[in-house]
């Protein structure tokens, strides 16, 4: 496992899983360019089980849920720092747009199978939003309050 990533409730070996469900990979880039969308992916093997849900969290706050047996199948939840491209978010991936510095955080994918057991596996990894080298921030006043960073203007 890479630094900043963790598995919940299961030994640290790959693939992460429980009987009937394995989380094969979680792709969260360690850094993201504030001016570019970022796609994260979560690959799993149901091993013959039926999918109940795939949920995505930022810093333990759920921001996206996919449930194939419900309408609508996809649901987004308001989370500070998160703007989703719902057209590019589905059963295996989420795409974040309009990144901000507070988009940085710990991202977790949680996959569950249906009743009666509701077997669940999860893995998380950190991502930091940065301004790419060659970009610059205009303005002398950069105010920090908690996780929020405000600037006068970002230039490309």
From TrEMBL:
The record's annotation in InterPro entries points to:
Ig-like_dom, Ig-like_dom_sf, Ig-like_fold
Cite the SUPFAM superfamilies for this sequence: Immunoglobulin
- Ranges for the Ig-like domain? 11-128
Signal sequence span per UniProt?
A: none
Q: What is this protein called?
A: Ig-like domain-containing protein
List the top taxonomic levels of the source.
Answer: Eukaryota, Metazoa, Ecdysozoa, Arthropoda, Hexapoda
